[in-house]
Structures are given as C-alpha cells and as structure tokens.
Amino acid sequence: MDKRIIIKNGRIIDPAQGIDGAGDIIIEGGRIEEVLVKFPEAANKRQAALKPNIRDVRVIDAQGMIVMPGLVDMHTHLREPGFEYKETIRTGTMAGIKGGFTSLCPMPNTNPANDNPTVAAFVIKKAMAEGCSSVFPIGAITKGQQGQELAEMGLMQEIGCVAYSDDGRPVMNGLVMRRALEYSKAFGFPIIAHCEDLSLSDDGVMNEGPLSTYLGLRGVPAAAEEVMISRDIMLAKLTGGKLHVAHVSTRGAVELVRRAKNEGISVTAETCPHYFSITEKAVMGFDTSAKVNPPLRTDDDVYAIKNGLGDGTIDVIATDHAPHHADEKSLEFDRAPSGISGLETALALSLTLVEQGVLSISDLIRKMTINPSNILGLDRGTLKVGAVADVAILDAGSEFIVEPEKFLSKGRNTPFRGWKLKGVPRVVISKGRIFDIAGWKQ
Amino acid sequence: MMTKELLSKQDIDRILSRISHEIIEKNKGPEKLCLVGIQRGGVYLAHRIAARIESIERVTVPVGSLDISLYRDDLTLRKKRPIVRKTDIPFDISDRSIVLVDDVLFTGRSIRAALDALMDFGRPAQIQLAVLIDRGHRELPIRSDYVGKNIPTARNERIDVLLEEESAEEKVVLVSEE
Amino acid sequence: MPKDLVSIKDLSLEETESIIDTALSFKDVLKRDIKKVPALRGKTVVNLFFEPSTRTKTSFELAEKRLSLDVINFSVSSSSVVKGESLLDTVRTIESYGVDYIVIRHSSSGVPHFIAGRTRASVVNAGDGINEHPTQAFLDAVTIKEKKGGIQGLEVAIVGDILHSRVARSNVDCLIKLGANVRLVGPPTLMPLHPPAGVRVFYDMNEGIRGADVIMMLRIQLERQGKCFFPSTKEFFRYWGLNAERLQLAEKDALVMHPGPMNRGIEIASDVADSPQSVILEQVTNGIAVRMAVIYMLHG
Questions:
Q1: Using the beta-carbon criterion (under 8 Å), do C228 and A239 form an inter-chain contact?
Q2: Residues C118, C145: one domain?
Q3: Fewer CB atoms inside 10 Å of the end CB: C or N, chain A?
Q4: Facing residues of A101 across strands?
C-alpha cells in the first residue's frame, strides 16, 4: 500500500460523523489519520502534511468529487467455494471495488455451504490472499442450509463470520428459526432472514399478478414474502434476537417492518436497487436477466420501497449481487436461475434516488456505509480518525452506459444493460491500497 | 399450673459428684468404662460425670451421645415426628461396660429404645443405667443402677430438668396441672 | 409436616430447614456398621417409577430399607399400565394393597399433585416431567450446607439445560428460600424466556460463574440435540462447558456439583469432575440420607 495518501479538495460526506463539507483527508499506514473539513486551516495543514522527506506520498485531487467511506455490501454472493465458474472471491471483490464497495459480506450458499468453521476459514483465507477488498462472511444458520439443525455459529464467529443466514432459502420451520434467534443472543450477531414461504412461492418464477397471467408464467404472490416476514418479526419479538430482513420487495413488507419498528422490536431491513428501479414489466419478452428472487414487483411496490427508504424503515441498500454464467441465464425462463449481477451498477442506480428527492446524498451514503456496518458490528463505513482507510472517491455527475461485457464480475446477468446512469467511482481505497478505476489516474 | 423447685443447682452438683463416685466404686475403677448420654439432657450430664471421673481418677472416660428417636415404640403414633439429633459414639462399644445416662427415668420406654440402639452398634460386655431423677410409673421392667433422687409423682405431673447448657437457671422443677 | 412431598413451593422455610438438618443427622446412620434403624418398621412403600431411573430409584430403595420399611418396586414396562390401565386405577390398586407411602416418578409434570389428592398414602415426588425434583434439591442443599456451613448469601451458579431441568427448577425454589443468590447460566435456547423471579440470567458462562461459591452443572440430554438447542456438543463445551480454566473464575474453594450421570467432555471436563473441588460423590451419599429424612418426616 502507498504509505501516505492525501485526498484534497473533495466534498467529504461521512454520515457516521455528520460531516458534509469540503475538505481533505490524510491517510497514513492504512488508516485515516486526519479529516480536515474546513479551508483555510486545511491549507496550512496541507502544507505541513506534504512532508517532503517522506517518499511514498500520493496526492489525489478530488475537486468536484464526493469523498465518502467505502461502501459496505451486506448481501452478496461470491460463489467460492464450489461455483467458481460463476464468480470467484477475486473477481467478485474486483467488481465490488469498481462499484465503490470496500467491504463485501458473502452469503453461505456455496458448495460446500459455509456452515462450519472449516469452510469459513477457507473463505477468509482466500479473501486475504486474493481479495481486493475486505470480506466478512455470513455463515449459514443451519447445517447445509437444510433448515433442520443449527450450524456451529459460535465457533464460526470466532473464525470471522459476522452474521448468519440461510439466504437463497428460508428457514421454513418456525421452531428452528426461533432457536436461531434465541441462540444468537449469546453471541450478539444478527440473523438475516430470506423471507419466502416455499409452500406459497411454490414453482412461481415472477410476481403473481395480471402480468404473470398475461405472460402465462407461474407467479409468486407478495404474500409468500409477507407471511414469512410477519412470522420472523413475531419470533424476533418473542425471543429478543436481532432480525435483519433481506431484500424487501413489497409494500406489505415495508409496512410490516415499519409497524414492528414502531413497536420497538429489534428488526432492520434492506432492499436492493432493482426493487426501486424496475418493475415486473422488465420480464416481458421473457428476459431472464429480470428473473430474480424475490421477483420484481409493481409500480406501487416500488413507490412503497422508496417511501420506506425515505422514512428510515429500510435501513440498508444492499446489492444481492448474484452472478450466473451466461449459459445458465440462456435457458428457458422457468429453468434459468434467479439473480442479478449488481455490484457495478448499485451505486449509480441508488444515486437516482437522490435525483428524485427520495433521499439526501448523505442519507443515501448512510444506508450503504455506516448502517450496514453497524448492523453487522463492523468497524467500517466511516471516515473517522483511526478508522481503516476504506474510501471511495465518486464522480457523481459522470455519465456512463451500462455495458455488462465490460464488467469485472464474471456475471454479466443484468436487466440494466444499455441504461444511461450517473455516478462513477474514480478512485477506491481499500485498507489503504489505492485502486484507480478504469485506468483513471491523475 | 403449679411449679415447685425440687433441686437447686448446688443439689444437682452434689448428686453428680456422688453418682460419679458410685460409678467408679461399682466398676472397680474407670478403665473399661464409657458413658453414653441420651439426647438431650443425658448428654450434658454424661459429659459432666466424665469430667468428674477424670478429676478424681485422672483417667479419661470416653463419652458418646445417642439419639433414640428412630427406635421409639410410639414413632408412627405421634402426630409430629420427633427431631432426630446427633448420635455420635466415636468408640467401639463391644466388650466394654457402658453407663447409659439420662435425666429422668419414667416409663422406661426411652431406655428400652436406647438399649436397642446400642445393640446395633456392637455387643457391650454390660450396660448400666444412671439417671438424675427416677419419678416412678414404670411400664417396662427397667431399673436404674445409679439414681440421683427418687421423686414420687402423679401421672399428670411433669419433671423438668433445666441444665445451664441450655437454660438460664439450673434447677429441677415439678410441674403439676391444677 | 404435610402428608405429601410434592413440591418445594408448598414448604415453609422452617420445614425446608428441618428436612436438611434431619438429613444431616441421618448421615450418622449411614456410617454405622449396621445401617438400619427400626423407625418405620411395618410400614410399606411402593416405588412407582414410570420413567427409567437406576440412580434415584436405588437411592430411594436404600433409604427406605435403612428405615426398615417393606419395599415394593413397581416398574412400568412389566405392568398393567402397558395393558392400558389408567394412572388413577393403578394408584387405587396399589392403595388397596395397603401401602403407606408412594414414591412416584413420571414423565408428565403434575402427576404427583394429581395422585396426592386422591390417595391416603403419603406421596413423594421423585421427579415429575420437567417440573420438579424436590429430593434432588434437598440433597444439593445438604451438600452445600455441609461443606460451606450455610447457604444464606452464597453465590450459586446453575449451568446448562435450565429449560428442561426439574433439578434446576427445584434447586432454584429451594436455594432462594434458603437465601442464596442464584444465577442461571446457559445458551439462550435452553433458558426459559421468562425465568423465575429473583435469579440472574447469564448467557456468557465466564461472567456467570465469576465469583461463584457453588457451580451446579446440569446434564445435557443428548437426545435433545435434534431439536436445535445447540449446534454440536463441541460448540456447547466450548462456550458452556466447565473446564479447569473456567473454574479459576469462580471462588477459590468453589464446590463443583452435578446431579449425575455426567457427560464427560460435554458439560464438564474429566479433570474437573475428578478434582478436589468436586463433591459429586458426596451428593450421592447425601441423597440417601435426604430421602430417609423425607420419608421419616412425612405422615404415612
């Protein structure tokens, strides 16, 4: 890593500290050394900071750009071990960096599943050796994600898992979910719930409604998600465990979370960019790149998601980055796997919320940095002095066209192909290591 | 209810001295002797007698305590179970002469129970009995070898032996219902 | 004393203390050469065990014989219950044999209460479902009193499967009555969501046994593993097992107790079970004395 880095002239936005103003950041030894938010003091200090006798100094002029904490994605699929043809930890973290993410939390639905300390240790070791950013694995709740027996969550936490989820699958048995939430209290980690009642979603492949009828595709009703959210919220209330609801996609879901929070139940929620950017209409033409679980919903749901983001009901925007091989998505709609490769479009899509007035830029950044970091008990998502130097320097106005062929992720499956979006990270610093995106260098 | 003091502390002291001498005399010395007091009054008396024998003959006589609750013949007839106290006989009683010590000899049933209990501990060479007060009204053929004082009583009267180990004032009183 | 011993909750402090003191006296009988007293000669007791149990049953049987009772053992597998006779009919039949005491263990909570009101015999609860096990609590109290001189003000940590343990529940009742400070320690999945009043709950075992005078380990019922109470015995031992290192966190001469049978290496390390601080074997001896005291004190 470069020993000393000075980022000057940028607009520093760090919601964790309530900072939004022009200033400089000085990084030394992989950690934030100083955050100087006001000129002309900054000018004087900057002079002092440019100690001429230190060799490795990199100065980045962030004029006109936003300097923010590196993003934390608390829901992503890195596919390693077992599905390296879809993505590896190396390619996944690279895609993350390009998208402004310096911390990724991969879900355990690998092969073998991350349901024991050995696999967890493998993931962490691989990430240290080959990853470009920090990786905090999410372990499985149950062995093999079968929903029957609890995984050794305590031992896995000691290895480095930060939360537990059977994502990809729900925990169908209420007693098992109850035990998971209870057990978590001894260790303090959250249980992340993929809320889907399999008996209701059955073999549905898109949102159930007039459109699914029109297209002749089997539908997944909103109720399949809401029934489970309801159950899990009540279990959270009963047990006192920490519940985090993954990928909220419906109005009903948002309302359930809102009501639970009002009651003081310990529940947090996330949504993904596709749930506030597109609707089920994207499925028309049987485009498998729009096949995702939970499915894309209706305009009304999108509206409710945005409201939920705006009033704080939804705490986090996560990507649910789910890369698949092109061959797999080139199957008939019923057989294609669900998932969108989202790391490289998430930030830009989320910035549209700022443009639409749904969120301030500061609140948006909060939902992608300090909020997920706090939920998982990480020390990231902030630029406070002494913090690990995870920084993203964003050119918010810069336009680009979404070209999946140019993705760093192996997964090219995205319904946003050809979209014109704004917001490109120019430089991303992860643990003090500088990544110049797309060869951009000052 | 009427209470009449029968013996004062001094009287009790003198009686115990006499009994101690009698025990020594009858057994021709304290060598093979041991004392076993019946809970609770008998235990205190047994210790006092042992102390006196020791001061007279310069020989330590072992003392044990015996709780007879578990051998009573009226155990399951009473409404409330008697409290079981400590039985501690820290020596082998086989082939020894035991002097059983109790405060009041009345129907003789306690002594019968004590004899049964002792037999479960071994086979003594002989068992003698020393009591502070014999109030008569025997219901079993039991008699005491050493008696402090014979006090005839009516059935409905009661003799209370108050010893300083447990009471403020040491004396023996006769309690009658009026 | 009441006719039956069904629940510690029914006993006053005086009654509880007198059982403990009487048990200590009965220990003398157990040290004698002739371990028998004629106290309850001619009385009859039936040991009615619907749940398999070698230890408790043997302990009761010995206690009964030491008191000179006539003992009948009624074991379920070979009995008319299997033929479909109701519990109440079984009890009535037994009563017609002229028994004075019924010592009963059953897998359903509340059975001793049920039969106590319907029979003239004195009923002793030897364990009902996940509810109570009064004699176990008494023998634990006797053990503690003997070693520590008293119970008031002691810090007692009960560790393990609290949720399903009648031993834990009876101990909580008894120890609180006697003035101890009780801590319940274990994984949240094995802890009742609504613990009894007056106890402190710890999920962190290190904090839970810090400064404890007595550590009472409970047996982990391995049959329960299938129902998601904890992921593996390895993880259980790591976070809630009593090993020598953890024992250091307690008071220097803290007692290590266990109702038995032990799962060495799962809830308790072997070296701790065999250490000088362990009073596990004394508990067994005291069990007989306690059961003698209980039967002695009830009215047949």
A1: no
A2: no
A3: C
A4: A71
Domains identified in chain C, total number = 2
Chains A and B touch each other (3 or more Cβ pairs < 8 A): no
Instruction: Out of A294-298, A342-346, C40-44, pick the least confident.
Output: C40-44
What distance, in Å, lies between the first and last C-alpha atoms of chain A? 17
CA atoms of C48 and C104, how far apart (whole Å) = 5
Q: How many CB pairs under 8 A join A and C?
A: 52
Q: Is the pLDDT of residue C78 over 60?
A: no
Domain of C236 in residue numbering reads as 134-284
Q: Report the CATH number at residue A118.
A: 3.20.20.140
Q: Cβ–Cβ of A154/C203 closer than 8 Å?
A: no
Sign of the alpha-carbon dihedral angle for A280, A281, A283, A284: positive
DSSP string, A390-410: -EEEEEEEEEEE--GGG-SSS
Query: Which residues in chain B have Cβ-Cβ distances shorter than 8 Å to C296?
Result: 70, 81, 84
Query: In angstroms, what separates the C-alpha of C12 from chain A's closest C-alpha?
Result: 35
**Nearest chain A Cα distance for residue C221, angstroms:** 16
Query: Would you tell me the crossing angle of helices A299-310 and A251-262 to the nearest 10 degrees?
Result: 30
Q: Among the residues of chain C, which ranges form H helices?
A: 13-31, 55-66, 87-96, 111-116, 134-148, 166-177, 205-209, 233-240, 244-247, 270-273, 280-297
The confidence score (pLDDT) of residue B40 equals: 85
Phi, then psi, of A132 in degrees rounded to 5: -90, -15
The CA distance from C136 to the nearest CA of chain B, in Å, is 21
Torsion angles phi and psi, residue A241, rounded to 5: -80, 170
Q: Do C18 and B83 touch (CB under 8 A)?
A: yes
- The verdict on whether A300 is a catalytic residue reads no
Residue C39 at interface with chain B, using a CB cutoff of 8 Å: yes
- C206 shares its domain with C113: no
Q: Say yes or no: C37 and C143 in one domain.
A: no
Chains in contact with B, counting 3 or more C-beta pairs less than 8 Å apart as contact:
C
Question: Which residue of B71, B79, B87 is in closest CB contact with C28?
Answer: B87
* pLDDT tens, residue by residue, A50-84: 555 556 788 899 999 999 999 999 999 999 999 99
Residue A134 β-bridge partners: A103
C and A interact (at least 3 Cβ pairs within 8 A): yes
Q: Are A308 and A248 in contact (CB under 8 A)?
A: yes
Give the DSSP H/E element, type plus range, for residue A230: helix A222-239
Residues A122 and A27 in one domain: no
Number of other CB atoms surrounding residue A179 within 10 Å: 28
Q: What is the model's pTM? A: 0.88
- Interface predicted TM-score of the whole assembly (ipTM), two decimals: 0.88
Is the Cβ of B47 closer than 8 Å to some Cβ of chain C? no
Q: Which residues of C touch A184 (CB under 8 A)?
A: 188
Whole-Å CA distances, C151 to B86, C142, C154, C212 = 21, 9, 6, 13
Q: Both A46 and A167 in a single domain?
A: no
Burial of A47 by CB count in 10 Å (0-12 exposed, 13-18 middle, 19+ buried)?
Answer: exposed
Calculate how close chain C gets to B45, using CA atoms only, in Å: 21
Rounded Cα distance, A124 and A159, in Å: 8
Order the strands of the B171-176 sheet from edge to edge.
B2-7, B171-176, B158-162
Q: Which carries the bigger pLDDT value, residue C141 or residue C30?
A: C141
Domain match, C236 and C254 both: yes
